[in-house]
TrEMBL record:
InterPro entries: Rieske_2Fe-2S, Rieske_2Fe-2S_sf. It comes from Rhizobium puerariae. It comes from the Bacteria. This is Rieske (2Fe-2S) protein. Keywords: 2Fe-2S, Iron, Iron-sulfur, Metal-binding. PANTHER family: 3-PHENYLPROPIONATE_CINNAMIC ACID DIOXYGENASE FERREDOXIN SUBUNIT, FERREDOXIN-RELATED.
Length: 120
């Protein structure tokens, strides 16, 4: 296993991210609700740069009494990242896609003395 120094822990703000090269891999590190989550920068759909996609709250489509969607709402508790190639969305905390069959590949993190390391 190899360990890569990424940055200081405070360098990634809540709701922010940092994408770094670790050897021949790219890893995206996100901070959500104060916790850091690291994912390989490969969308499972077509291997697009998922970690460089748009970050936003989960989109919720409420269905009314006529079984129609009239508006969109956002669930601020679940932050998602969308692949810039085809728009596939993944929960940043779990790595899961809404369909459930697809998920991001997690990278291990280590935090020592305020420094963030990726372990591959």
């Amino acid at each position: 296993m190899a360990e890569y120094l990424v940055c200081s822990e405070e360098e990634i703000a809540d709701g922010g991210r940092k994408v770094v090269a670790c050897g021949d891999k790219e890893i995206g590190i996100f901070r959500v609700k104060g916790a850091l989550h690291a994912w390989h920068n490969l969308c499972p759909h077509r291997q697009g740069p998922i970690c460089q996609g748009r970050i936003y709250p989960q989109v919720v489509e409420p269905v009314d009494g006529n079984r129609e969607v009239r508006t969109l709402r956002y669930n601020e508790e679940n932050m998602h990242v969308a692949c810039p190639w085809h728009g596939w969305e993944f929960d940043i905390e779990t790595g899961r896609n809404a369909i459930g069959r697809y998920r991001l590949h997690r990278a291990d993190l280590s935090i020592r003395e305020g420094q963030v390391y990726v372990v591959l």
